[in-house]
Amino acid sequence: MIDRLEKEVDVLNRHLAVFVLVWQAEPIGIVELSTRTDLPHHKVRYSLRVLEEEGLIEPCSAGATTTDHARQFVETLNDELATVIDALDDMKISESVELQSV
C-alpha cells in the first residue's frame, strides 16, 4: 500500500523537476531536459505530456514553454503540498495507541 504512494511521489517529483526546468530555461526540448535531469527520453516525454494535459506547458517549435496557468500553479503549489502533508500526518498511527490483534 505504501509502496504505491512512494511510487506516485517519485513520479510527481519527476514531473515537478521537468516543470521547473521548463520554467527556468524555456523553450527547452526533450534532449536538453533529459540531459539536465539524467532521465531517459521516454520518462521526460511522459512528464511533458502530463504537464501539457494539466495546462502547465505547451509545445512550440523550439521545445516546451510554460503557459499563463503555470504562474498560478507555482503560487499555490506549496500550500497544496502542505495540505497533502497534513493529511498524511493525520493518518499516522500514534505510538500510544495499542493495536489489538484480531
UniProtKB/TrEMBL annotation:
It comes from the Archaea. InterPro entries: WH-like_DNA-bd_sf, WH_DNA-bd_sf. Gene3D superfamilies: Winged helix-like DNA-binding domain superfamily/Winged helix DNA-binding domain. This is Transcriptional regulator.
